[in-house]
Amino acid sequence: MAKHLFLAVTCRTLGCTTGCMVKYVGPYSGESKFQHLAPEWFMSFCGECKQTHRYKREEIYPVLRDEAPPVGFESAF
Ligand SMILES: [Zn+2]
Q1: Is the pLDDT of residue 31 over 90?
Q2: Residue 10: strand, helix, or coil
Q3: Which of 4, 6, 1, 29 is nearest to 77 (CA)?
Q4: What's the CA-to-centroid distance between 1 and ligand 1, angstroms?
Q5: Pairwise CA distance, residues 14 & 38, whole Å
Q6: Residue 28 exposed, middle or buried by CB count within 10 Å (0-12, 13-18, 19+)
Q7: Is 25 within a domain?
Q8: Residue 64 has what DSSP assignment?
Q9: Residue 59 lies in a domain
Q10: Which of 50, 51, 41, 46 is nearest to 18 (CA)?
Q11: DSSP conformation letters of 44-65
Q12: Number of domains in the chain
């Protein structure tokens, strides 16, 4: 089964360490460079604490999941 590559950031809210999925890149095919896919700054909403924060490109990390994004998944950029 192919893995799915997402980009995530860790929520900035104090006490909330939720990893927020900010973008679905697609089926994973071994790419190791992904930061160029993000703008320098972007806003992301945390579904856990309901706060929106500003993040920078360097804060992004890759996440591999078995499932494709759910219906209604919204990219932050
Ligand atoms: Zn949060």
Answers
A1: no
A2: strand
A3: 6
A4: 30
A5: 24
A6: middle
A7: yes
A8: E
A9: yes
A10: 46
A11: EE-TTT--EEEEEGGG-EEEEE
A12: 1
Query: Could you tell me the two tokens for 1?
Result: 């089964």
Residue 37 belongs to a domain: yes
The two three-digit tokens of residue 77, written as one number: 């950029």
- Percentage of residues in the chain having pLDDT higher than 90: 86
Ligand 1 centre and the CA of 29: distance in Å? 30
Report residue 25 as tokens: 């890149």
For residue 31, the enclosing domain spans 4-65
Centroid of ligand 1 to alpha carbon of 58 (angstroms): 18
pTM for the whole thing? Answer: 0.91
Place of tokens 């604490």: 49
**Has residue 72 been placed in a domain?**
no
pLDDT of residue 12: 97
Q: Which residue has 């909403």 as its token pair?
A: 45
Single-letter code of the amino acid located at 72: G
